[in-house]
Amino acid sequence: MAHDHHEQNHDHGQHGQNHDHGQHGQHGQNGDPGRRGHDHGPGHGPGQGHHHDHTDIDWAEMGPMLESSAELFSSLYERALGWLAQEVTEPGLIVDAGSGPGVVSCLFAETFPGARIVAVDGSEPLLERARARAERQGVADRFSTIAGELPDVLDELDYPADLLWASRSLHHLGDQRAALAAFAARLAPGGTLALMEGGLPPRFLPRDIGIGRPGLQARIDAVEAEWFTQMRTGLPGHVAVTEDWPALLAGAGLKHTRTHTFLLDLPAPASERARAYVVTSLSHVRERITDGLDAEDLATLDRLLDPDDEASLHRRPDVFVLEAHTVHTAVRPV
Question: What is the pTM of this model?
Answer without folding.
Answer: 0.85
